[in-house]
Amino acid sequence: MACHLLTPCTRKLASALPSWYPTQLNQALCIPVKIKLCTNLNPGYYYSQRSVFSEEELLRRASFLASQFKTKESEMVQLLSHHRRLVTMGFTKFQELSRLLAQHGITTQQILTYPEIYRRRYETVASRIQQLEEKGIRPITMGMINMTHKMYQARYERLVLEAEACEQYNDTVHFLSEHAGLSLPEAKKIFDKCQWLQDSRISTLKEKVEILQQYSISPEALREKVWIFAFRADVMKTSLEMMKNSGIQFKDFPPNSVTRIVRSDVKFKKFLERLLEDKAILQASNCADKHQYLCYRLACTQTELEGMLKRFPGCYSINLPKLKANLDLLVKEYNFTPSEIVATPRVLAFSTATLQDRIKRLNEAEMPVNCNVLVMSSRRLNGLQPHQCLSRSFAVSYLDNGLTGDTTAQVPEFYCRGASPKEYER
Q1: Which domain covers residue 76, as residue numbers?
Q2: What are phi and psi of 390, to 5 degrees?
Q3: What does the pLDDT look like over 199-219, one tens digit per residue?
Q4: pTM to 2 decimals?
Q5: How far, in Å, are 110, 125, 162, 421 from residue 142 at the CA level?
Q6: 124 and 223 together in one domain
Q7: For a Cys staple, 62 with which of 11, 76, 92, 181, CB 3.0–4.6 Å?
């Protein structure tokens, strides 16, 4: 142990330690003492050896800064007092950097915020300022000049792209008008409402538009979904590449589905799988879209279909596989007529399993099966009595016959759907 470095108090403590006490801890006691002794030998020793400066030098440099940046000398004195390196560095470099910064509009506040700019080489600072001026990038900030080389290059390239985009387009409103299929008043209205759009760079928006154009996405598709530009370009590109690899073009997307491309990979993959299934169903029926498919399966005109959609708009939002399964179940398996489904389109919104279960329960209870019964709530359906399921025409005919005679002829077809011949005779 270097006992000559210990104070009397610490030496007494070390001598009191038993012989079996770990040597490392005994030596560790010397470390803070060495530091303390070194700092206590001569208070201010560190500064007196490495930061020697005179008050005259500090005042001289403060006066020089005050004259260059047109500010109070007292502020510069305070700055130099807190950053002694500015006083101890070479006066020639100090002068050159100060003049360079003052000539290019650097303010006193920026100097106070980034005093470490004086650590940079004069050539580095001068070349960066010259680069920014040549590209017309304004204002020149200390935060930009004082970056590391890697960060500066990345920021510089981004600012150059932004400057070129601003030269091509006047502002974001004109950009949206040209690339999102909007008129100037519409673009202005959207721009005023969206803070994220106001904060977005035109160069970033341009990059996203170029990505969308690579995959043949028209401005009309973006008209109602301008907020897609709020998502990152790499997310959009990944989803569009997945779409391209699956053999699907954007024109095959259903209306208002452009926002699907910014979903997570898992969700977007499921969406593509469903889109492929829809495409196969339409091709098998030789139909272009869901409207034509409904007209084809329900044997109705476009006017009748529009009337049906007015009564139940949710019908159009039902996915094609579900529509196909329900129509196959009702029309092919249980012989429902298309006109019945057109009259009660809400029956298509139920799952295929629910429809099968309800039809089975109605047949077991020997109750009539029709669309009006199938769309009832579960509570109402559970409390349903057989006479409540009959159609009005059948009930009137049945009562007119006085509950006697041959009423089988008046029994409508839907009364025994799915029932066996014996059940029908009974």
Answers
A1: 55-165
A2: -75, 150
A3: 888 888 888 888 888 887 777
A4: 0.47
A5: 6, 10, 19, 92
A6: no
A7: 76
